[in-house]
Amino acid sequence: MTTFLYARVSTADQALAHQEEHARKQGFQIDEVIADHGVSGVTSRLRDRPEGRRLYDLLRSGDQLVVRWVDRLGRNYQDVSDAIREFMRRGVVIRTVINNMTFDGSTTDPMQQAVRDALIGFMAATAQAQAEATKEAQRAGIDHAKAATDRYKGRKPSYDRAQFLSVRDLLSQGTGTSAIANIVGITRQSVLRIRAAPDQAEFALQAWGL
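The chain above was modelled as a monomer; its predicted structure follows.
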């Protein structure tokens, strides 16, 4: 049996190390880490990503697939649901670091199967809903920047777009503000400002062309 950790990171390499460290601290014995960098969980299916495709090739019956949360597999309801169900059909056990959820295909009881499948569907739908809400906030920030008439930029952000995306990604995973500041390399106050007003942060980056 091999235990794989699959991670999807937007930009910062440190986010990968953080996901692995979190998994090990929760007691997971990881044999191999597989990660896709700079890919969207909304527009790219797991099997279409370079390392996601390799994951499909490597997983065998009896293996364990560990992910921080199901949104690492993707942020599209159908894609995430299909991926988890295919892995279960192969005899792979899927486990999440957050809340230690476990999904496998061993149960034959129809009621247990129904509860399991409903939970998978709910988690996949939640991942997509979170992605759509983030995208809407980004769009609102961009529209606000375009509509500004005074062209006053305000104070230049102390972070760039890559750092902003990393902070947003780590916040969605439940990472603490101090840990995010250390991982991304910005101040804790900057993390708090992004968390409190992501649309304003997006506006500032747009205004400064970052």
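The CA atoms of residues 141 and 203 lie 5 Å apart.
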